[in-house]
Amino acid sequence: MSVSIVMGRGRDGADIPLDLTELLSTRLLVQGNSGSGKSHLLRRLLEQTATLVQQVIVDPEGDFVTLAEKYGHLVIDAAEQTEATLRAAGERARMHRASVVLNLESVEAEMQLRAAGSFLNGMFEAPRTFWYPVLVVVDEAQLFAPVAGGDTSDEARRLSLGAMTNLMCRGRKRGLAGVIATQRLAKLAKNVAAEASNFLMGRTFLDIDMLRAADLLGMERRTAEGFRDLARGQFMALGPALSRRPLMVTIGEVETASHAGGPVLTPFEARPAEDSYSLILEPVVEPPPRPRERRAAAPDLLAQLDAYNATIPVEEPETPCEADPERLWSLVEAVVSETDSAYRPLATLYQDFQLRARIEKLSRDVLDLAAFRILLASVRSGTGYAQSVEPDWQQALDVARSLPEDVQGVVLLLARAALDHAPCPDDDAIAQAYGTHSLGRARRQLAYLEERQVIVVQEMASTRRIAFIGLGWQTA
């Protein structure tokens, strides 16, 4: 069944529909300079679909919090939450099918990236049972998926860019329909923008943006300058949910408005400089320092989400089950089986393990980080659960625990090969165990272990042999 809404009117005054069913499968990219009407367009889309599909809005400027007053969206203020809480909130928002506005207005740029990345990742990792359709609108998307580095840390940028890439590239099968809006296509990461199949291109003035917009719409380059002539609220539309040929649409009216209006020109009356001097440079009296007040505890966001939309039946969580070692081993094996897990940060893998543990009705604290790290290294070494309980492997674990954490994975990889009397792992395998792509750095770990009197390395023509000192283990 196809469901359509009216986005606005064409040149001839006819209604221009948007096929919501098609949009949920093909995603939407909106581009236009500041003042071109992007926020108005997004508000029109959100108002028309508020009663048809669950919505999640990533709002860096606090423009869309007013939707809560009319349509009942839950407003989450990122300034009052932690990254862990936001990640859990993203997952629970999908479970409870709650429409949410993630308000990032009160936090700095670094926290905006972390908050958006954590929340979107939580939505992305929700169990398959809760993969209902969600319209995910990200305003000012160039902030969360930048084409180049800025003033924020690399870690925050990778977190946010990874979440945006998952949303646009892998979100469709999970029911996540991305709608991203940006001021400039040149500032938006190409692997994020390229996944959209529907486009609404508004007024822009820079040549590089006009040419790229024309290319996306399949227009001839000589017509690209027409983007400068578009009025506020006018967009060129193309895509399976909109039109098979480029079509100009004037966005329709909206029922709600942002709290922050634009600048309004008011009468100006100049005053003498002497009067201004006394007003502006009046001495400032420093107030005495006040005792620091204890801040009230932040509202329990998870409790709000649990209570939200209480008419939807949700199974009550059961008492956590007891975890046997073999069950934990299988959970870590599932984490390791994910693509590129060898190069993902330990904290990310640990969060993945905690999520799987909760799905299995285990306590999320069933393993602390140190125990997870050594178990992860054991699984990566190729050791099975039956082998892990053997006395020789317990000796290998004791050796690994006596060394720095970053080389524990390398030691266990070598120990597994030596215990099995298998060929010594090559540089690629050692580099992967160390979490690097550098083969030179991998070889340096062997030299370090030899200096620590843990192993002896015997280099041969095309291979090498490694023996563990004092244990009698050696590779083939």
UniProtKB/TrEMBL annotation:
SMART domains (UniProt xref): AAA (SM00382)
Which Pfam families is this protein grouped with?
A: DUF87 (PF01935)
UniProt xrefs under Gene3D superfamilies: P-loop containing nucleotide triphosphate hydrolases (3.40.50.300)
Q: Does the keyword ATP-binding apply?
A: yes
Q: Known InterPro entries for this protein?
A: AAA+_ATPase, ATPase_Atu1862_pred, HerA-like, HerA_central, P-loop_NTPase
Which CDD domains would you find in this protein's record? TrwB_TraG_TraD_VirD4
Is tRNA processing one of the keywords? no
The Gene Ontology terms for molecular function here are: ATP binding
Where would I find the AAA+ ATPase domain in this sequence? 24-214
UniProtKB keywords: ATP-binding, Nucleotide-binding
Question: What name does UniProt use for this protein?
Answer: ATP-binding protein
- Give the originating organism: Swaminathania salitolerans
